[in-house]
Amino acid sequence: MFVYKIFHNSSITVKKLKTLKNAQAKRDFSMSSTGTLTIKSRSKFSKIDKYTIPLSSSLALRVYSDTKPHNSHIADLQKGLIFVHKGIETVGEGTGFGVPVLLYSDETYFSGSSHVYLYEQDNYKIVRKEFLMDKVPRNRIGGVKLENQKLASVNARISKYLAEAYQKHRHLRFLTVERLFKIMGVRTDFVSTIPAGKIIVNYGISQRHIHVKADFSFIKRGNLQKIFMLSEQGSRFFTRYFDSNGSDLVDRKIGAWEAIEADWACIMDIHGRVGFRLWRVKKSILRRGREFLKGCRDWIGLDYEINPKNAVFEYEIEILGASR
Q: Per-domain residue ranges for the chain?
């Protein structure tokens, strides 16, 4: 997970994706009014703890109100929509689809608590997840927690230095952030704190598409520098990256957290049978990333960096292979 920071018979190719729904691929990235998710009143929603939405005989999406699945060091953080293939969750250490993160000048806020609601009408479903932004990362050096103001300042400088070095010096890219931290004896925990507010995310779900609408009206704005919307799954199942510019990357070559210049980008399994596609959205930055380190890192995804002045952010996820 970011913390600092198509079809040719049985497979999907970049060439085929370029012609697949060509008009859709050339959409207005500001999201047209016809593509805006219409939100029903809360009275029509039912509160849920866990729900699985079948997309095909082999694919589904799953959502939890708690922090399941409890994988790796983000076990206590909330997840978005989780990709399920043949009954097995493939999220790894990823966040799932549509998860917010708030970056302030002095803290980065994640969600450890939520409420989840469901609205169903025919073959269309809306899942509403209310993320309480009540967790912050704290590093340990050896057995020492960096919690008081002086130590937190050291923690911030270490994190900033490693993040900048990781982004600027490409020859370091073979190391993950986790490996760099391990070398220094640094471990990250997520601790409860006074919430920075809540973010309401609505997922409009049909067989092949998820329309994500995030409402940032209920968060504190002072010192807010960036908002991120993460769409990540597990890197052991999803291993390939394609985009509309013709890039075709596998595993480590995908990079740690790279800005995308193409109109759209895809993450796929190694056989090109199932995956997901996102588009660039105006006034935001779309980034790709992947990290795998046995026992602690296992994520791949497409994440948006958003202007902190945004009150609402919407984007589309196309599920590839769901028609099978």
A: 14-24+65-320
